[in-house]
């Protein structure tokens, strides 16, 4: 599925997450699934997470273990990311 934030009427009216995709952080490649923009991340082991949102704005946040980060994400970067067990939440 493409970017779920493009349209006002989301194709997933229930708001449920369709799938979780394991993420390998990368500085140069979008990595939340082919053609996807994730609606958030689930992080198993806390630390810093550096990511690009749907508009290519870079953000860094510190999260605890077993945290759900709710924000559009197109790439989790390796530089600045210390958290592990990262999964993209896609609709």
Brief overview, please?
By secondary structure, the chain is mostly beta strands.
Characteristic key phrases:
mainly beta; 91 residues; globular; three-stranded antiparallel β-sheet; 7 strands
Structure overview:
The protein is mainly beta and 91 residues long. The chain has strands spanning 19-22, 38-45, 47-52, 58-63, 67-73, 75-77, 84-90. The strands form two sheets. The protein has a four-stranded antiparallel beta sheet, with no helix packed on it. A hairpin with a 5-residue loop joins strand 3 (47-52) and strand 4 (58-63). The radius of gyration is 12 Å and the shape is globular. The N and C termini lie close together (8 Å). The mean pLDDT is 87.
Topology:
Layout: E1 19-22, E2 38-45, E3 47-52, E4 58-63, E5 67-73, E6 75-77, E7 84-90
Antiparallel strand pairs: 1-7, 2-5, 2-7, 3-4, 3-6
- Which structural category fits the helices and strands? mainly beta
Rg, please? 12 Å
Shape: globular
- Beta strand %: over 45%
N-C termini distance? 8 Å
Tally of helical runs: 0
Order of helices and strands: EEEEEEE
How would you sum up the major sheet? 4 strands, antiparallel
Low-confidence stretches: none
Mean pLDDT: 87
Spatially, the strands of the biggest sheet line up as 1-7-2-5
Compute the number of strand runs: 7
Helix content: under 10%
């Amino acid at each position: 599925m493409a970017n779920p934030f493009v349209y006002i009427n989301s194709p997933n009216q229930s708001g449920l997450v369709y799938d979780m995709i394991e993420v390998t952080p990368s500085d140069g490649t979008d990595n939340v699934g082919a053609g996807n923009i994730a609606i958030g991340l689930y992080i198993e082991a806390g630390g810093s997470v550096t990511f690009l949102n749907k508009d290519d704005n870079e953000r860094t946040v510190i999260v605890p273990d077993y945290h759900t980060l709710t924000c559009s994400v197109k790439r989790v970067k390796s530089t600045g990311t210390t958290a592990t067990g990262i999964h993209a939440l896609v609709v």
